[in-house]
Amino acid sequence: MRLRAVLFDMDGTLLDTAPDFVAVIQAMREARGLPLVPEKQVRDVVSGGARAMVINAFEVDPLSEDFERLRLEFLDRYQDHCAVKTRLFDGMAQVLEDIERARLRWGVVTNKPIRYAEPIMQRLGLAERSAVLVCPDHVTRSKPDPEMMTLACRHLELDPASVLFVGDDLRDVESGRAAGSRTAAVTYGYIHPEDNPRSWGADVVIEHPLELRAVLDRAACGC
């Protein structure tokens, strides 16, 4: 079936959001008189969300009261700093232009809550270009469940088989496959050192956003 749309995971796929996460963690550590942590230490666990980043940066017991206070502070600080240093990954601007030039639609399916995802899309000038934004707030079950993908395809009025879902986590691939979409796993995102995107069962593995151009060309013509 000919490709009609491309859906992207947000963090680590469409956008490099890690710099803002790193800035928040560093500010929290500085406020406590603690030394800064290596940026890579934060990037390696971004896919695990606020919980993983807080545990990693402060070596705190997730069952302790300290953890919950740190987690809430992290989220509050991130609310005010969610689109300061966040940018499209290198090459992704050209990919989005190619998609739009081919008269395909694109959108975002992310486990990031809408209170962060929506402002980011707006501040980067992507909200008016994106055909759909699906967040956990819109469903009862987040990725890896297919509900988010199914909702996005329904909103686009497209057969899931005509949609390519691009992500940097096994959950993205599992969600896309379960929904009946084609999938692409990217290796440039926030991949945990122990993960191997080539073992996730995606239809294609991408090492740089610009490699999507060839994938889109083949899919658009039904090759």
Give an account of the 3D structure.
The protein has 223 residues and is an alpha/beta fold. The chain folds into 2 domains: 5-16 and 86-220, HAD superfamily/HAD-like (Rossmann fold), CATH 3.40.50; 18-80. It contains 9 helices and 8 strands. The strands form 2 sheets. A 6-stranded parallel beta sheet has the order 5-4-1-6-7-8, sandwiched between helices. It has a two-stranded antiparallel ribbon with strand order 2-3. Helix 6 (114-123) links the parallel strand 4 (105-109) and strand 5 (133-134). Helix 1 (18-31) crosses helix 4 (65-80).
Average pLDDT level: 95
Enumerate the strands of the largest sheet in spatial order, edge to edge or round the barrel.
Answer: 5-4-1-6-7-8
Strand content: 5-15%
Order of helices and strands: EEHHHHEHEHEHEHEEH
CATH superfamily of the largest domain: HAD superfamily/HAD-like
Number of domains: 2
Annotation field: number of helices: 9
Overall 3D form: elongated
Provide the structure class: alpha/beta
Q: Which segments are poorly predicted (pLDDT under 50) over 5 or more consecutive residues?
A: none
Described by strand count, sense and barrel closure, the largest sheet is:
6 strands, parallel
CA radius of gyration is: 17 Å
CATH class of the largest domain: Alpha Beta
What name is given to the CATH topology of the largest domain? Rossmann fold
Which second-level CATH architecture of the largest domain applies? 3-Layer(aba) Sandwich
How many E strands?
8
